[in-house]
Design brief:
The chain is an alpha+beta fold. Among the domains are: 92 residues, Calcium-transporting ATPase, cytoplasmic transduction domain A (Distorted Sandwich); 111 residues, Calcium-transporting ATPase, cytoplasmic domain N. It has 22 helices and 22 strands. A 7-stranded mixed sheet has the order 10-22-21-20-11-18-19, with helices on both faces. The N terminus is likely disordered.
Length: 626
């Protein structure tokens, strides 16, 4: 029998672990409720011997895992939260404080259950991301047959069939069919997107209606769904300065607390001849109350929640270590083409100056430009489609003159379409003082067309919203000429423009900006990769050059640039919540430690305070997801 091996290990591991955890959690919950019932029974009027037996059973039933972990940690000199709790429980029981030792276990376990539930809710965005990867694909054979294949066996150049209701398994181009795609898992946008032949589609989208025959453009490893999953896992494994500090802090802090608790238990009875039991109980209160779990849990969870919240806005961040730079940024620099604009051209003006109609001129130009992929040609083709000009004239003697335009014969007429340099070459004087592409028929200008870059949707108000997020300096850095750059900048509202820049000059410009604070740079081209690496937080647009995506700290997989202010707001809110959690935890701990030291706070109150603070800070952290 053939052994079945799953190569999609990340997904399978998570699903398997999730099922195992669910079963374990159910078992623990049953044990916990039985323990609570037994603890309540101990208050009945029964003999002390039976009461002690019930207390011991409650501790073992509810806290066996806690105590085993704590004992193991002691032998390994690993002084974590479980170690402190185990010492407190065992010591309180040996000192005859049976109800208190039970309360420590029950309150601690209750806090753990509530925290686990909160953390589980915060992980939904990660699990949803994992689910965008599929295992099998409908491969179309050369004879047109359909065969199910494992996704890892599909290669670039293969044909696949995507049926209605199925997920797009790999990045591909549509060869046949039309449909609507739900791309919400990729872009965060819930409105279905209509797609047709020759269009490229991304893995992770859902095919809503029509069947699509597609040509695979990227294999499993390099497709969008795999990249998203990899980036999300990478994001949760990289720690920022604050998060890394908290981890180091807890490793030093816990042994120090343990030593101080020993001093509290031993020194006062020796020096002041006071009751040993009293000071041991105070030491246990000190030990429990000083647990750093509220900080150790809530700080990473805040960053984790931030990654999830930002991914819902259409951007994947490559690690929590980058969140702090994003939150602290006070300057943003944008590339122009492919970032603020789509990289496509559109017709700005179509002016008729001779005896031909606009439709006739557009038909001539469309016939000349129909087979070119030049941005101007694409704009002409789009305009012809909008105006439903489908008839194309037969073109003879077609010639593309690089840097000038195109020429050809249509119905025995000499047609030229191009810029001022084309006019000069053919000794034709321009009748207008502006940059345009002229339509010349038999040596006479019959009209002209001006073009402009297509600005991305909803970015006109982005500058004002960025300023509301304390972005003081907004700049455009582009290799394009100053005239085109100013035109786009004025429409978007960007106050400062640096144009005609080479990649090295862009990098130098960002270095100069960094002298005034943290800088975000948004770009997409290969020439932007040095600048993306130089910036404090580099953002690559979806479809950017591969080297740009590698250099960036975040990738805008939705290309919805208008979400950038919201993303900044999430990052700033995260850092604010992290500071709130740390400050709140420290204040409460200082108060409880003081009360415990003077003998006012019992041990169960210390546990309640520790668990309560942990729960409050965890809930505060997952607010970021909302």
């Amino acid at each position: 029998m053939e052994e079945k091996t799953c190569t999609n290990c990340c997904t399978c591991n998570i699903q398997g672990e999730h099922e195992t955890e669910e079963k374990q959690n159910k078992k623990e919950m049953i044990f916990y409720f039985l323990s609570v019932i037994l603890f309540l029974l101990s208050f009945l009027p029964i003999e002390q011997f039976y009461k002690i037996a019930i207390y011991a059973f409650v501790i073992l039933l509810a806290g066996y895992e806690l105590i085993l972990e704590g004992i193991k940690n002691i032998f390994h000199f690993n002084f974590e939260e479980e170690t402190l709790m185990t010492i407190a429980v065992v010591a309180a029981f040996l000192l005859g404080e049976f109800p208190e030792s039970c309360m420590v276990v029950l309150l601690f376990r209750l806090g753990e259950f509530l925290e686990e539930k909160a953390v589980e809710n915060s992980q939904k965005s990660i699990k949803n991301t994992v689910e965008i990867k599929v295992k099998t694909v409908n491969k179309v054979g050369e004879d047109g047959s359909i065969k199910q294949e494992k996704i890892e066996k599909i290669k670039v150049g293969d044909n696949i069939l995507i049926k209605p209701g199925e997920m797009v398994p790999l990045d591909c181009k549509i060869l046949q069919g039309t449909s609507s795609l739900d791309m919400s898992s990729i872009t965060g946008e819930s409105i279905p997107v209509f797609v047709k032949e020759e269009e490229s589609i991304l893995s992770g989208s859902i095919n809503l209606n029509g069947s699509l025959t597609c040509l695979v453009q990227k294999d499993e490893k390099h497709s969008m769904a795999s990249q998203m999953v990899d980036l999300v896992y990478e994001a949760t494994s990289h720690k920022g300065k604050t998060e890394a500090f908290i981890t180091k802090f807890s490793k030093i802090y816990t042994p120090v607390v343990l030593i101080l608790a020993l001093f509290i238990a031993i020194l006062p009875p020796l020096i002041f001849q006071e009751e040993t039991k009293t000071w041991i109980m105070r030491a246990l209160v000190f030990l429990v109350a000083s647990c750093p779990c509220s900080i150790v849990i809530s700080v990473p969870l805040a960053f984790f929640s931030c990654i999830g919240a930002i991914s819902k806005k259409g951007m994947v961040v490559k690690g929590t270590k980058h969140i702090e730079n994003l939150a602290q940024a006070n300057q943003i620099a944008f590339d122009k083409t492919g970032t603020l604009t789509t990289g496509k051209m559109k017709i700005e003006q179509f002016v008729v100056t001779g005896n031909y109609t606009k439709e006739e001129l557009l038909n001539y130009v469309y016939s000349l430009e129909r087979n070119s992929n030049h941005p101007i040609s694409t704009a002409i083709q789009e305009q012809a489609k909008k105006e439903k000009i489908e008839e194309r004239q037969q073109v003879e003697q077609y010639e593309e003159i690089a840097g000038y335009g195109v020429s050809g014969k249509i119905n025995q007429k000499e047609i030229l379409f191009g810029n001022n340099k084309l006019l000069e070459k053919n000794h034709i004087q321009s009748p207008v003082e502006k940059q345009a592409n002229y339509i010349i028929i038999d040596g006479k200008i019959e009209g002209y067309i001006t073009f402009e870059e297509e600005i991305r949707n909803n970015v006109e108000n982005i500058v004002e919203k960025l300023k509301q997020n304390k972005i003081e300096n907004i700049t455009m850095l582009t290799g394009d000429n100053i005239e085109n750059a100013n035109k786009i900048a004025s429409k978007v509202g960007i106050p400062k423009v640096l144009a005609s820049l080479l990649p090295k000059q862009k990098q130098e410009a960002v270095k100069e900006l960094k002298k005034k604070g943290k800088v975000i740079f948004v770009g997409d081209g290969m020439n932007d990769s040095p600048v993306l690496a130089e910036a404090d937080f580099g953002i690559a647009m979806k479809g950017a050059a591969e080297i740009a995506e590698i250099a960036a700290d975040g990738i805008f997989i939705s290309n919805r640039l208008e979400e950038l202010p919201n993303i900044l707001s999430i990052a700033k809110k995260t850092m604010r919540i992290v500071k709130e959690n740390i400050l709140f935890s420290l204040i409460i701990k200082i108060v409880v430690l003081t009360l415990g030291f003077v003998g006012i706070a019992p041990i169960w109150l210390a546990v309640a305070a520790d668990t309560g603070v942990s729960l409050i800070t965890v809930l505060n952290s997952i607010r970021i997801l909302k």
